[in-house]
Amino acid sequence: MRNHSIIAAACTAALLSGFTGAANAGLVGITEGFTSSTLWDINTTTGATTNPRTVNTTPDRAVTTIAVGPSGKLWGVSQGSPSDVPSSGKLYLIDPVTGSPTLIANLSQTINVEGDIATDPTTGFLYSIDGQGMLNKINTSNGVCTTMGTVPGNLDLSAMSFDAAGNLFIWDSFGPTMYKINKANAAVIGSVSLSPYPGGQIGGLAFDPGSGKAYLSADLGAASKFSQVDPITGAVTPISSLVATGGIWGLAFTPDPTPAHAATWGSVKSRYRN
Predict the structure, then answer these.
(1) 15 domain residue, yes or no
(2) Whole-structure pTM over 0.90, yes or no?
(3) What is the CATH number for 61?
(4) What is the pLDDT along the chain (274 residues), one digit of tens a residue?
(5) 247 is in which domain, residue-wise?
(6) Which of 112, 142, 152, 231 has the fewest Cβ atoms nearer than 10 Å?
(7) Which phi and psi angles does 221 have, rounded to 5°?
């Protein structure tokens, strides 16, 4: 099992307008370096990866997990480093057009061993999970951490996402199993085995806000797998290998992943900062 993200988390985010632009939503994925990551556009039909842009957080650790929040904000979380005070992960707002990160806050708690972040579309709240099961809610203003509970079992939780109704699904690569989780206390509502095996130990999970389909990336280095997955039945439909990326570690649907989104993104940053 590879140590990886870092996910730290916390409390209440302001309830803002819901995710917009679902009809034009585009899938993006992130690959991890040490002090910088790469953001990619991913074709959900072919798995083709295009338009790489660097998410440079030098001298701090790289962003390894992403999630889209209200009004199209693209959040990213990095792992902690000794230079951090406190020594924790960090929360960033990422420009999906250029990849430029803006530091928002140090997270008040460091969570290690893989994991992921995801936004509940019914509330706008940002959550995180670490590899061993700790579920948190993130206060996106100050990075303060609140733990909702811990998913029970000997787990390696590597990806999570909410569907349009606010149901939380988390991928355990040990199983490989898809869990449906109570977001209020981390209790297991149900689980299904994934078949065929999607591969990997690190990855991303994202629901298309337009079609409702769920996509899973699994990190196997140069042979990283990209699939469609049914979290209710466990059926996995392989799409391709994400060869160009070296392995996707996080997935999210943005309102529009193309440069044409630049003007809209500018207004999002303005609203956030104001």
Answers:
(1) no
(2) no
(3) 2.120.10.100
(4) 444 433 333 333 322 333 333 334 699 999 876 678 899 999 999 999 899 999 998 888 888 899 999 888 999 998 765 555 555 788 999 999 999 999 999 888 766 667 899 999 999 999 999 888 999 999 999 998 899 999 998 888 989 999 999 999 999 988 899 999 999 999 999 999 999 988 877 889 999 998 999 999 988 766 678 999 999 999 999 999 876 666 788 999 998 645 444 444 444 444 333 3
(5) 22-273
(6) 152
(7) 65, -130
